[in-house]
Amino acid sequence: MILQRFGMPIYLQVKGYILEKIKAGDYKAGTKLPTERALAATLEISRNTVSAAYRELLMEGVLEARQGRGTFVRSNLEEDSRMEITGSKRERLLKLIDGSMAKAQELGFTLDQFAAIVRIRAQEKAVAVREMRIAVVSCAPEYGHRYVSQISQTANVNFQEVLLPDLRAGTVMVELLIACDFVVTAAEHHLEVAQLMGGESAKLITVVAVPNLEAMIKLARLASGTRVGVVADSDHYVETFERLLVKTMSANLVLDVCCSTEPEQLRKFVAQYRVIVAAEERQNDIRRYVQDGQNVIAFFYEIDQGSLNQLLTRLITAAL
C-alpha cells in the first residue's frame, strides 16, 4: 500500500489524517469517529496501525473514548483552524506558565508584575520576528507558496520566495539568500543549498516536506492505466509529482499536463479527464469547468508539523 512508502511511520500518517479532518471540520467536536476496523479498511492498512494512532490521540486529549459507544472527537476541543490540534497542548502550556510564575515569585515579583513582563516580552519578540527576512527555497513555486502559507499562519515575517532552478542557473544570486536572516528549504535540497551558501550556511533551516496524505490515498486507489489530467504552473511541479509516483509504485497512471492559464484551453483540457490533479492554487481556476463525476485531487508538498514547530522556535529564539 502506498502509505508505507514515503518515509513517515504509518500510524503518524493516520494521526495526521485525523487531525487534518478535525481542522477541516469534517470531524467536528463531539463527532463519533469510524471504528478502528472501518478506518483500517478505508485506508487499506492494518487495524493495529489505526489503533496506535487512536491511542496516541486519546492520550493527547484530542479524542475521548465513551464506554460502549466508541471513539469521539473531544467535546470541548478548541475550535481554531490555525491551531495545531495536539492533545493537552493547552494543559502543558499552563504547567509551564505555572512553573514560571512560581519561579518569578521566588525572585520577588508579584503576579501582576509577572503578567506585565510577559506581555512586554511577547510584544518585543513579535516585533523582532516581524522584522525578519526569510528566504524560502523550493524546487517549484507551487511548493514554495504552500510553505510560505504554513509559516505565515503563525509567524508574521517578510518572505522571499526563491526557486532552486533559478539559483542553479544564476538568474537569482546567492547573495539574496545571504542577505536574509534565515533560509528555509526541504531536507532533500539541504546539501545543495548549503554548498551554494558556503560559510553562511548556519542561517539554513532544514524542514521535512511531505506529500498531502489525502491526495496520496486517492491516487493509490486509481486503477492501473487511469488517465489523469495534471494542471500546474511549472514543469518542476510535474517532475517532482512524477518522481513521487515512481517512488510509491503508482507509476502506472497515464499523466497529461496543462500549464496554461487561458480559460478556453483549461476548459477543453479539464473536459477530457475523469480525474484531475491540480496544484493547490490552481483549483479555483478549474473547478468552474468540472462536471459531475469528475474528481479533482489537490496535490502539494507541505512542511511536516514537527519541522514547522522547530522552525518557529528557531525564529523566536533568534529574535532580539
Tell me briefly what this model is.
This protein has about 325 residues and is α/β, with parallel strands linked by helices. It is about 50% helix and about 15% strand. GO terms for molecular function: DNA binding; DNA-binding transcription factor activity.
Could you explain how this protein is built, in words?
- The protein has helices spanning 10-24, 36-43, 47-60, 89-106, 111-130, 141-152, 164-169, 174-178, 190-197, 213-220, 235-247, 263-270, 283-287, 305-318; strands at residues 63-66, 70-73, 133-138, 158-163, 182-186, 204-207, 209-211, 227-231, 254-258, 275-278, 295-298, 301-303.
- The chain is α/β, with parallel strands linked by helices and 320 residues long.
- It has 4 domains: 2-73, Orthogonal Bundle (Arc Repressor Mutant, subunit A); 89-128, no CATH class; 132-210 and 304-318, Rossmann fold, CATH 3.40.50; 213-299, Response regulator (Rossmann fold).
- The strands form 4 sheets. A 4-stranded parallel β-sheet has the order 4-3-5-6, with helices on both faces. A 4-stranded parallel β-sheet has the order 9-8-10-11, with helices on both faces. Strands 1-2 form a two-stranded antiparallel sheet.
- Helix 1 (10-24) packs across helix 3 and helix 2 (36-43) packs across helix 3 (47-60).
- The longest helix is centred in the middle third of the chain and has 20 residues, at 111-130.
- The chain is globular.
- The model is unreliable at 79-87 (pLDDT under 50).
- Residues 8-76 form the HTH gntR-type domain.
- It comes from bioreactor metagenome.
